[in-house]
Every structure is written in C-alpha cells, then in structure tokens.
Amino acid sequence: RILLLTAHPDDECFFFAPTILALRRGVSQPEVYSLCLSTGNAEGLGDKRRAELDRSLDVLGVDSDKRWVVDHPLLQDNITMRWDPSVIADVLTPFVVDNNITMILTFDTQGISSHPNHYSLPFGASYLARTLSSTRSRTENALRVLGLLTIPVVPKYFGILAVPLARARIILSWLIPRVLSPSTAIFTSGFREYSIGSRAIRDHDSQMVWFRYLYMLFSSYLWVNEWVEI
Length: 230
Description:
The chain is of the alpha/beta class and about 230 residues long. The chain has helices at about 10-15, 15-25, 45-60, 85-100, 110-115, 115-135, 155, 160-175, 190-200, 210-220, and strands spanning about 1-5, 30-35, 65-70, 105, 145-150, 185-190, 225-230. The protein is built from 10 helices and 7 strands.
C-alpha cells in the first residue's frame, strides 16, 4: 500500500504523474493513496483548488475513497515557510496506521523547485518512519520513504528527451555499477501517459497561467520520475 504525499493541489500531476500511472498499470497494481497536506490557499482559492485536485486524481486513476486533503493551521501554503517535521508526522500518523501504508512517496530534500513546503515533507515522513520503527514488531513491515529526485535545471527541461536518457542511464548502471549506482526506481511515460498527465494538469484551471503551458511542453517530470530512498 503506497501513499503519495504532496504539499499542494497540482503537485500530483506536475511532478508525480509518471509514477502514479505506472503503478496503476503495473502487473501487481498496488493500492495507491493520496494525501495532500494543504488546500493551496495562498491566494484564497483553497476550495476551488481542492475541487481541481479531485478532478485531477480522477484522471490519474486514484480512487475517491483513497484520497484526502488536510487543512491544518501549521501546514498552510506559504512559499517562505518550512513546515515542522513533527507536525507533519502527527498529521500523517492516522492515515498511515489506519490504512496499513508500507511506503510513502514524496519529494526529496531539495523539493524539486526548492519550495520549502515541498522539501519539508521528506523530513516529516522520515520522522514518522523512525517513530513507527520503534513501536512496530519485527513481523510488521517497516515504513519506507522514497523521494522524487531533484534534477539540475537544464535536464529538468529536456522534455521527451528525458526518456531515452533515463533508459540509457539504467543500461549504464547495469554495465558499470561502480560508476553509476542505480536509483531505487525509475518510471517513464509514453505518449499515452503524457497525454493523461497533461489532461490532469489542465484540470487545475486556476493555475493555468502562460508558463504552465511551457512547463507541460518541456518538463522532464511529465516523462520521467526517478526515486531515491530517504
């Protein structure tokens, strides 16, 4: 059971669409849950953005009874505020425990765009994982936390070229393991998955200013997700 942990409505499609779609089409088809820790209310559009998130998750295939949005006073959308890991862990706990979550997928410690709300999440998730490891029995699965790898600015906008480059990297990591250590996992999208991810983005119509269209054209994150253990 996998929980996608995001900071704001639209994170799920701007950054994580290749992973969600790959998990949904995979042979094992793990149960995928989504938890967004704010309504994205920085501009007073929280209710609208919550509804947009629902439409986006419908497109991406996350079941309506496996998605939640939190509106916590200490976890508000704020580009200058880093969220407290202990608060994140406290909010996370009932969702993880009650649904027997075994893996959390979230941002890495650079947060892709250096947004402090983004890079707060892996610290909160890791805080919870450490807490649970001290209370769970040895027969219970340990909670794993994976972070979406932040890539440098130039390759971040390679667009579709990110796919052959990622596949070449996988092959090289097999051939030269001492030179290139493989990531925990890499998911790539084809044209069909890219189209679905783009449709999910367009459901966030309150966020569709001009540079979002450029992002859709050139962002590598709509084509490739590379994961590392936190």
